[in-house]
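Researcher: We're teaching a course module on how sequence relates to structure. For the next exercise, students receive a sequence and then see the predicted structure as tokens, so they can try to spot secondary structure elements on their own. Here is the exercise chain.
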Amino acid sequence: SDILAISGGTTMAEVAAALPPSGKRREILVIPARGGLTENVEIQANTVTAALAKNLGGRYRLFHLPDGLEKDVLEKLLSEPTIREHLDLIQKARVVLHGIGTAENMAKRRGFSTNVLSELQRKDAVGEVFGYYYDSHGQVVHAASSAGLQIDKLDGKEVIAVAGGKQKAAAILAATLLIPGQTLVLDEGVAAELVELLQVGIN
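Model: And here is the predicted structure for the students to work with:
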């Protein structure tokens, strides 16, 4: 069966909820792309995964590993068979569905220390995808301590980003450099803002 990996977040929760129920069974396995943030359960990756699978008529597998673990703890957990099995499934995913966040907002949601927040500002981080924080050139400047989809292992996958809001324009534009070839699904406001940014860049 096809495997679809999805990230958490407000936008992905809205995508899952907006999808009309298929009413028939499909050979699709939906899985979380990464471990979840310890935040509002409605927008956690596991919740979004279950909701999307239900509306698609597919099956789902959950991933019970939070983001933000200490590196030594994370390394120990990565040797667990159930964790390894899920990471293998993520690598087999044919489709990856994700949101795009601004660096500042996502850093605050993750509860980063003042030092890390200062580092992100110093390095001009504009956006976040899959726990990776990047600058306007699409260069990764910081990676959150978490397990899941690796940004350098997306070759051969159909990557779809869904994002909205003018405030995300710079993050979205840079995300196209971070992950070339991905499909963008945007609202009208941010699409117009992107056109303006691109025209300024050309001129």
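Model: If you want an answer key for the exercise: The chain has a mean pLDDT of 91. The beta strands are 2-6, 28-32, 59-60, 95-98, 101-102, 125-129, 132-135, 140-143, 158-163, 183-186.
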